Amino acid sequence: MSQQPSSTAPDASTTAQVAEHPSSAPSRAAELASLKVKLRAALRQFPDFPSPGILFEDILPIFADHSVHEALIRCLELHVLETHANEKPDVIVGLEARGFLIGPSLALRLGASFVPVRKQGKLPGPCETQAYDKEYGQDFFQMQSDSIKPGQKVIVVDDIIATGGSAYASGELIKKMGGNLLGFIFLLELEFLKGREKLPAPVYTLLSGQESQA
């Protein structure tokens, strides 16, 4: 936690906080590294699903074990605390559908609101709409028009970044509503697809992804 300058002498508690700060980064880094090992061990891979040549990363075992689920949310919390210490997010945005498994819990930890991004036609009321490219044509994401206020600081979360199209669409929706996009957080990344190159804000991935399956 950052310390604000004061015109008066610091009290004992403030002095203690300042003294502890230098050790916080190494301890958080060690904790994060240990938790990542636990997360990686929980993942399962299924070859040729949902189609031949695809190696499917199954994250659902993480949520079947409460201690691993806790490790996931703590990893995300640690990253936000380290990276955005002076810019606490106001909103966590989760992408349909696995972002809904992660986003609400992280939002609760950070004292932020949670906002879903959904496929077109799933949300009631006025919505902002953004197209994005898929392997076979276009699809459309939507967010309710009043879900993000101008100037609010926003982080987007999802399970995997592949081509980056859906994440890019979410970023465009946030910008349309005047939000300040702090970054994107993913559990896994398929690096060979270079999806992060499309995204307009910093990208963080908890675990290393797959090599090309070609």
UniProtKB/TrEMBL annotation:
<comment type="pathway">
    <text>Purine metabolism; AMP biosynthesis via salvage pathway; AMP from adenine: step 1/1.</text>
</comment>
<keyword id="KW-0808">Transferase</keyword>
<dbReference type="InterPro" id="IPR000836">
    <property type="entry name" value="PRTase_dom"/>
</dbReference>
<feature type="region of interest" description="Disordered">
    <location>
        <begin position="1"/>
        <end position="26"/>
    </location>
</feature>
<dbReference type="InterPro" id="IPR005764">
    <property type="entry name" value="Ade_phspho_trans"/>
</dbReference>
<dbReference type="GO" id="GO:0006168">
    <property type="term" value="P:adenine salvage"/>
</dbReference>
<dbReference type="GO" id="GO:0002055">
    <property type="term" value="F:adenine binding"/>
</dbReference>
<dbReference type="GO" id="GO:0003999">
    <property type="term" value="F:adenine phosphoribosyltransferase activity"/>
</dbReference>
<keyword id="KW-0328">Glycosyltransferase</keyword>
<feature type="domain" description="Phosphoribosyltransferase">
    <location>
        <begin position="72"/>
        <end position="188"/>
    </location>
</feature>
<dbReference type="GO" id="GO:0016208">
    <property type="term" value="F:AMP binding"/>
</dbReference>
<dbReference type="Pfam" id="PF00156">
    <property type="entry name" value="Pribosyltran"/>
</dbReference>
<protein>
    <recommendedName>
        <fullName>adenine phosphoribosyltransferase</fullName>
        <ecNumber>2.4.2.7</ecNumber>
    </recommendedName>
</protein>
<dbReference type="GO" id="GO:0044209">
    <property type="term" value="P:AMP salvage"/>
</dbReference>
<dbReference type="InterPro" id="IPR050054">
    <property type="entry name" value="UPRTase/APRTase"/>
</dbReference>
<comment type="function">
    <text>Catalyzes a salvage reaction resulting in the formation of AMP, that is energically less costly than de novo synthesis.</text>
</comment>
<comment type="similarity">
    <text>Belongs to the purine/pyrimidine phosphoribosyltransferase family.</text>
</comment>
<keyword id="KW-0963">Cytoplasm</keyword>
<feature type="compositionally biased region" description="Polar residues">
    <location>
        <begin position="1"/>
        <end position="17"/>
    </location>
</feature>
<dbReference type="GO" id="GO:0006166">
    <property type="term" value="P:purine ribonucleoside salvage"/>
</dbReference>
<dbReference type="InterPro" id="IPR029057">
    <property type="entry name" value="PRTase-like"/>
</dbReference>
<comment type="subunit">
    <text>Homodimer.</text>
</comment>
<dbReference type="GO" id="GO:0005737">
    <property type="term" value="C:cytoplasm"/>
</dbReference>
<keyword id="KW-0660">Purine salvage</keyword>
